[in-house]
Design goal:
Blueprint lengths: L3 E3 L14 E7 L6 H12 L6 E7 L6 H11 L3 E5 L6 H11 L4 E4 L11 H8 L5 E6 L6 H19 L11 E4 H4 L12 H4 L7 E6 L15 H20 L1 H25 L5 H28 L12 E6 L5 E5 L2
Parallel strand pairs: 1-4, 2-3, 2-5, 3-4, 6-8, 8-9
Antiparallel strand pairs: 5-7, 6-7, 9-10
Length: 335
């Protein structure tokens, strides 16, 4: 099929052009949305004059999503398709699209038409002000209150407390990145909602802007309360990563000191036991001491590896560009 390639096949979209912008859209059972979505993206970006490509990442759809997307690709060379053989999840689909994207800027958005492509030019303009990542904030979210809005607000509050980033809508997929920032972020599990926090080690500058959100017209939501537990586990991982990223030398030194202290204590405890073996005591003590030395050595290395891009080591600058319902734009700084 025209412009279609499977992940891992090593193929690239046809044509030698290098687009200015790549729009990455994970697709899963969105047969009624893909045509309208393509039209909306093209309608939003054509007037901007930017050269762009669209990457639909089919996450193992079981409906006619691929067939309809392929029909579009046959007449629009700007559309390429990445196809998974089975469902891997939104983060994996997003990671694949980002890996194949060739633009200087990368846009990610959902494939259900709830994100409005008309917001992309405004977000790109904000990126041109010097930001590295622009996050969409669904001001008037069109979702069910109890099953979607309440869990989302709780999750955003918790994510803000854990990461220290006062972003109001981490779950909004509509984001715009500089390619060099997002392509260096490791994405796995359901980590796509934590991308802003994961850019902390590189000192990225973040803006959050109000965007439109529309009610789903076709298909069914792929989200549910069952994801909450997975989000909590991922949040623990993020907290650990940020702890080491912010203070790697201190973190490794503390762990090393703890193991160094436990080494002689464990040897004495095992040796004092009548049934204990001196060989076992020395083995356990030796392993703990070895790990302690290893952690002490990792501290300076990690400090160099996680050194933020900004020289003074400060956290990212986060600017919120809030859009009121009356259409007036204003900005405020976030402490």
């Amino acid at each position: 099929m025209v412009n279609e390639y499977k992940i891992g096949a090593g193929a690239v979209p046809s044509g030698g052009r290098v687009p200015d912008l790549s729009v990455v859209v994970p697709i899963y059972n969105e047969e009624d949305n893909v045509v309208l979505l393509h039209e909306a993206i093209v309608g939003a970006l054509d007037p901007s004059g930017r050269d762009f490509e669209i990457l639909f990442v089919d996450d193992g759809s079981r409906d006619a999503s691929i067939a309809r997307a392929s029909e579009i690709a046959a007449r629009d060379p700007r559309l390429a398709i990445v196809q998974f053989q089975r469902n891997y999840g939104q983060t994996a689909a997003m990671r694949a699209g980002i890996a194949f994207a060739r633009g200087r800027y990368i846009v990610t958005m959902d494939g259900d038409l709830q994100n409005d492509p008309a917001d992309i030019p405004m977000m790109l303009a904000k990126l041109d002000e010097g930001f590295d990542l622009v996050v969409g904030w669904r001001v008037n979210r069109q979702d069910k209150f109890l099953s979607r809005k309440v869990p989302s607000r709780m999750a955003n509050w918790l994510i803000g407390k854990v990461t220290g980033l006062p972003i109001r809508d981490n779950g909004c997929s509509l984001k715009v990145y500089r390619a060099e920032v997002i392509q260096n972020v490791p994405l796995y599990s359901d980590m796509h909602r934590f991308i802003p926090a994961m850019t902390i080690p590189v000192g990225a500058r973040i803006a959050e802007v109000g965007v439109h959100h529309r009610a789903r017209q076709f298909g069914e939501s792929k989200y549910g309360l069952s994801r909450i537990f997975k989000v909590l586990l991922d949040l623990l991982v993020i907290k650990a990563l940020l702890l080491f990223a912010r203070r790697p030398l201190s973190s490794f030194t503390k762990l090393g000191a703890l193991l160094a202290l436990l080494a002689p204590i464990s040897a004495l405890a095992i040796g004092a036991d009548a049934a204990g073996s001196q060989v076992v005591a020395m083995t356990v003590s030796g392993l703990l001491a070895t790990l302690a030395v290893f952690l002490f050595l990792c501290g300076p290395i990690a400090t160099l590896a996680f050194r933020p891009a900004d020289a003074d080591g400060t956290m990212q600058d986060i600017e919120r560009d809030l859009t009121e319902d009356d259409g007036r734009d204003h900005e405020r700084d976030v402490a």
